[in-house]
Amino acid sequence: MSEKNYKMTICYDGTRYYGWEHQPDRDTIQGKLENVLKGMTGSEIEVTGAGRTDAGVHAREMVANFHLDTRRSPEQIRDYFNRYLPEDIAVLEVREAAEQFHARYKAVGKTYRYTCYDGPVKPVFDRKYVNVLDFSPDIEAMRQAAAYLTGKHDYKSFCGNSRFKKSSVRVVDAITIDKKRGYIYMTFHGTGFLQNMVRILVGTLLEVGKGSYPPEHVKEILEALDRSVAGPTAPACGLCLMKVDY
């Protein structure tokens, strides 16, 4: 036998986790996956994710890879994961990948969706996955603001890490905002996102929707390169990683 590179797709409810990245003495998604692999092999095996979702953020299709020397088929590896993972994490697929495949470095795009709710009756069964608003935002004004935020820009004003030293230039090629039956869906697609970036973009767009400032003001926020002038960081519960592109 020889070691092979495996690509897997995972979905999870991030409510009770401290994000993706392994942390000592805290429950994380990476930590749970690596614990299962350790139980399978008796060895420490690193699982590399396509990104690092924040504490409380969910995923429909997170992608990760790991190297393993095993006689199990990809389906048997998937089934082993799902037998021992907690009920709020599931492995959707495992398959062999090319040796050079790397879940983070080979990713060329990501889609995130943020969900809010402003309906008249509280959403009991969705309460862990939506940001319940106490106002009804102006969706058209938010769409106008989103147009200024789309494209290739320096998003330093929307980075939650004040000590971030690398380039904060990113490409966000699409932002769509839709409303249906009280649910407001904000979908972001880009080549990559800074720490807390989507949640700060959402918080800023909601300020526009509230009427705190006009849509064109977000252009000034972008150009300021200053986190303090952007809107608040929206709660993690409404954010979900929908897909990773390769």
Q: Helices and strands, in N-to-C order?
A: EHEEHEEEHEEEHHE
Shape type: globular
Number of domains: 2
Helix content: 10-25%
Q: Unreliable segments (pLDDT under 50, ≥5 consecutive)? A: none
Q: Please state the structural category.
A: alpha+beta
Top CATH class of the largest domain: Alpha Beta
Please name the CATH architecture of the largest domain: 2-Layer Sandwich
Number of helices: 5
Cα-based radius of gyration, to the nearest Å: 19 Å
The tally of strands reads 10
Q: What is the CATH H-level superfamily of the largest domain?
A: Pseudouridine synthase I, catalytic domain, C-terminal subdomain
Kindly report the CATH topology of the largest domain.
Alpha-Beta Plaits
**Binned strand content:** 25-35%
Main sheet overview: 10 strands, mixed
What is the end-to-end distance? 28 Å
Give the key terms:
246 residues; alpha+beta; Alpha-Beta Plaits; 2 domains; ten-stranded mixed sheet; 5 helices; 10 strands; globular
Describe the structure.
α3 packs across α4 and α3 packs parallel to α5. Strands 1, 2, 3, 4, 5, 6, 7, 8, 9 and 10 form a 10-stranded mixed β-sheet that branches. This protein has 5 helices and 10 strands. It is an alpha+beta fold and 246 residues long. β8 and β9 form a beta hairpin.
Topology diagram in text:
Blueprint: E1 4-12, H1 29-41, E2 48-49, E3 58-68, H2 74-84, E4 89-97, E5 109-117, E6 131-132, H3 139-149, E7 151-154, E8 169-180, E9 183-190, H4 197-210, H5 217-224, E10 239-245
Parallel strand pairs: 3-10, 5-6
Antiparallel strand pairs: 1-3, 1-4, 2-3, 5-9, 5-10, 7-8, 8-9
Helix pairs in contact: 3-4, 3-5
